[in-house]
Amino acid sequence: MAWDRKNPSTYWEDGEESTLEDHLTEILVAMLINAERSYRDGLMRHRDWIIERKAAAEAELNREKEEAERKAREFQEKVERERIGRLIAQAKALDRANQIRAYVESTLLRADEMPIATADLTKWATWARKEADRIDPVKNGTISLAIQEHLD
Prior knowledge:
It is a single chain. By secondary structure, the chain is mainly alpha-helical. It is 78% helix and 0% strand. The model has no long low-confidence stretch (mean pLDDT 90).
């Protein structure tokens, strides 16, 4: 008996008019046809599987590429936020340094109103100016680093 998916009732048997041996050619042809059909079906299934795997691999590559692009955008946005934060901090530091310098100058202009020795006032003014220079982004070099970073 040869089972065929499309025709499961194909079979051969000895009969009154013919023997099984009389049908050997027909049996062998049917077996070869079934084997060829089975082989081709397997090739088609394998081809379909390869196509599905390729599509899945392409989808995964696209997903990974989109994820990498998203992370790159997020990183760039973070860098920009940090750069703006540093810029604002430097502007505030410059304002504070200028306020300190203005305060020192104003205090020195009114030195005659204070009961403090001139030498002590001068020491204090020197210290205050150094502190202003320490936080001043132009004097301490942080503005130069920021400008270089912006150019890179």
